[in-house]
User: What shape does this take?
Amino acid sequence: MAHRIVVCTTCEGTDGVDFAARLRVEIAAHALDFEVQEHECMSNCSRPQSVAFSAADKATYLFGDVDPAQDLDDTLAFAKMYAESPDGWIEDARGAGRLRFCLIGRVPA
Assistant: This one.
């Protein structure tokens, strides 16, 4: 199953293009089944940097206030949890560190 991480590239005060590139490197290094996509404006301008996770038949997650300088490892940790979850429903996200406090919403599959 292909998973997707979408990174906003126009969030003011952040470099979403660089964050997406660094995510791609880490995703490949850990052999995770994710495509990292860049998207202009995810309409979450009050909470930049926006990052979303989605996959077919899985819950979708939207995060805001992601700090590209500090949250790469936590984003990768969440990616691992998401990939391992059959339905994408993460009940305990403590392993994702600070990223869990950046969650805006979770939408069922």
Helices lie at 16-29, 72-84. The chain has two helices and five strands. The mean pLDDT is 96. The chain has one domain: 3-107.
